[in-house]
Structure formats: C-alpha cells, structure tokens
C-alpha cells in the first residue's frame, strides 16, 4: 500500500533553522513571529500571545504553503505546525526547523497529519532520556522515517481530515466574531458605570487544585490550566463555568472561562462569585480588562490572591445586570456550543487518523466527492 521514505527525500531542502531575533509587540505590517510557544501539541496555533518580529532579515524566514516546522529542543521537541496561508504572514523563530515539502513526491498536507500520528510521536519519543524529551536537530529530522502511502490514499486522508479541520476553523472564526460582538454590547451598555466595588466583596478567590500529568485521560471532562484547556480528566471539580485568572508564568493575568463540568488546575485563580447573577457581566468585564498589571516578578511572573485585595470593579444597578445577562448569555451559549462541537470534531479526527493511516478504513471505498467539492476551504 506504500513504502518507507524519509522527510529529506520528500522535501525540497534539508531543513533550515529559524531567525534568531527578539519578539516585539504584534504590529500590522510586520510578520507575526512563530515561536514554539505559539504551537499547540495538536499542531494548531495558540493566538493568545501573538508577537511580531522586526528584523531586516525576517523576509528570509517567511513561511510559505507547503512548509512545515518542527520544535527542536526542550520539552516541546517534536511539536510541529504545517503552515496555512489563512493564518497570515509568519516568520519562524530559531528553535524551529523548517522543511519545504515537494508536492511532486508527497501531498504536503498529508505530512501535516502524519506529524500528528502515533508513528511520528513514537519516533520522537525514541530520543527521550528519562522524563526529558531529547533534542532533535535538522539532520536528524531529515532522516525521519515516513510511511508514504499511495498518492490516492494520501489525498483521501487529507480530504477527510481537512473537512473536519475546516469546520473547526469556521467555528473558531465565528466564536471570534461573537466575542467581538459581546464586547461591543458590553461597552455600549456598561461604559458609563461610575460606582465601583471591591472584587472580594462579591467573590471568593481561590487557587485551583493540583493535578499530576499522568492523571489526564483521552476523553472525559475538560481540564483548564492557566493558558487554556490542557486535556481531559475522569472527574470534574466545578459543575458550572468559572472565571479564571492565569497566575503563573508568561500568561499571568490572562483571563479565561472554563466550560461546565471542568477541572481547574493550580496555575489558575478562580473567581467564585457569591451571586451567580453577576457571572455574565463580570466574565465580559474581565475578558475586556486583562489583569497583567497585577503580576509581579520578571523572571517568573505570578499573581497572588493577596495581590488582588485592592482590585475594584464597576458595580452597575441590578436592572442593568439583568439586561446585560440576557444579551450576553445568548452569545455565550452559541460560543459554548461551538466549543463543544470542536471538541467532538477533534476527537473524531484523532480517532479516524490512525484507522486511515493503517488502512483499517479503506479510503478508496469512501465517497470523497462531497468533501473535495465542498466550500469549507474558501473561508
């Protein structure tokens, strides 16, 4: 059904290291800067701390369609991202290695999914020593073995997985629009509130619970850390969604909202409201007013409970709270529904991928017409 090859054999080059330049605040007109921390373990982008690179040589490190980058060092070794032009212009950083794939030898997007497969991660794990991931340089990445299936099967796998990923992308875009709309609604209704109240008068603030990494499961209830959802757990800590503040590391001050039935880890502060009727209002307030200024320490920034003792928030009359809640909850419910659908789609893709790669699902017997003729990719 296929044959063994290497990454070098299906690439136009032998791998290139990224630019060694500092990140600057994101600015339109400058390339976005792709760093290891901008890539999630599943190969998607993490847009929470988007930066730019302002360097005269950045143009030599721009990503193009057909490019894939791999993290080469530290506990993120093996993490990878296949460039999608819809993500905008990106220059890749020095701890990443870029390979430009040869479309005559491989469907480049097949490599995107192969780099999320068990075969790939087993290969990465072979370089681990103890609990630490081993470094992988460009020469070693170039020698990476690849199970190269027939072009017809590659194209079929790509068509199926792309259809799922495109739907996930559309849901994320819609949620971005809805979040912007919620901000507009909030500002129009609440921008003139003058009375303020101490946050501690209307909420209890506590740390999340400790959770060992080996307690995560493949499916279950979502686990939220200080930088977003990090996996699933077999039980949940909170029945209802909570407002979270990332309290350690570079993301300190970032405000998140958990899903219902979530486990929240110890690198988040939990704003537990005494009156849940204020939830939608305060959730939107904190989404608009991130708490970076309350972080202390430069090497390892953190936010403590005591550090928020003097934090005050606007305190509107309850009739305005009721109006805002009715308006914002309808938007939040839609965002939540899209998030849940995306989780289900991600699990579906991850379940299908090994079956497609192994031939357990025969792609040649799947009608791909509906997938290849759809318009999802136009978004």
What does this structure look like?
Helices cover 31% and strands 20% of the residues. With 379 residues, it is an alpha+beta fold. It folds into three domains: 2-149, DNA methylase specificity domains (Adenine-n6-DNA-methyltransferase TaqI, Chain A, domain 2, Alpha-Beta Complex); 150-170 and 322-379; 194-315, Adenine-n6-DNA-methyltransferase TaqI, Chain A, domain 2, CATH 3.90.220.20. It has a four-stranded antiparallel sheet. A four-stranded antiparallel sheet has the order 12-18-15-16. It has a three-stranded mixed sheet with strand order 14-13-17, with no helix packed on it. It is globular, with a radius of gyration of 23 Å.
Structure described in brief:
With 379 residues, this protein is α+β, with helices and mostly antiparallel strands. Helix content is 31%, strand content 20%. The strands form seven sheets. It has a four-stranded antiparallel β-sheet.
């Amino acid at each position: 059904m296929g044959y063994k090859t290497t990454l070098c054999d299906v690439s136009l080059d032998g791998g290139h290291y990224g630019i060694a330049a500092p990140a600057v605040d994101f600015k339109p007109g400058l390339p976005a800067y792709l760093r290891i921390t901008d890539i999630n373990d599943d190969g998607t982008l993490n847009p929470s701390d988007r930066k730019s690179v302002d360097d005269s040589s950045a143009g030599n490190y721009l990503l193009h369609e057909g490019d894939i980058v791999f993290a080469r060092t530290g506990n993120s070794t093996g993490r990878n991202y296949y460039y999608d032009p819809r993500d905008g212009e990106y220059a890749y950083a020095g701890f990443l290695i870029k390979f430009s794939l040869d479309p005559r030898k491989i469907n480049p997007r097949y490599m995107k999914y192969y780099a999320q497969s068990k075969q790939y991660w087993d290969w990465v794990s072979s370089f681990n020593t103890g609990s630490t991931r081993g470094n992988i340089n460009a020469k070693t990445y170039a020698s990476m073995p690849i199970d190269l299936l027939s072009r017809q099967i590659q194209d079929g796998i790509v068509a199926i997985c792309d259809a799922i990923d495109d739907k996930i992308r559309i849901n994320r875009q819609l949620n971005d629009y809805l979040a912007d709309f919620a901000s507009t609604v909030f500002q129009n209704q609440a921008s003139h509130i003058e009375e303020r109240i101490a946050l501690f008068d209307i909420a209890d603030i506590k740390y999340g619970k400790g959770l060992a990494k080996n307690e995560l499961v493949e499916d279950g209830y979502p686990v939220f850390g200080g930088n977003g959802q990090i996996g699933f757990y077999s039980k949940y800590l909170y029945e209802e969604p909570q407002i979270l503040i990332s309290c350690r590391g570079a993301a300190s001050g970032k405000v998140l909202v958990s899903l219902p039935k979530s486990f929240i880890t110890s690198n988040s502060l939990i704003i537990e409201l005494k009156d849940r009727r204020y939830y939608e209002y305060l959730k939107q307030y904190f989404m608009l007013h991130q708490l970076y200024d309350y972080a202390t320490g430069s090497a390892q920034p953190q936010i403590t409970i005591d550090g928020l003792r003097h934090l005050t928030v606007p305190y509107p009359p309850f009739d305005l709270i009721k109006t805002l809640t009715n308006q914002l909850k309808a938007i939040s419910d839609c965002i939540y529904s899209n998030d849940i659908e995306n989780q289900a789609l991600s699990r579906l893709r991850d379940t299908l991928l090994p079956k497609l790669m192994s031939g357990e699902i025969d792609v040649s017997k799947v009608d791909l017409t509906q997938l290849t003729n759809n318009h999802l990719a136009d978004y």
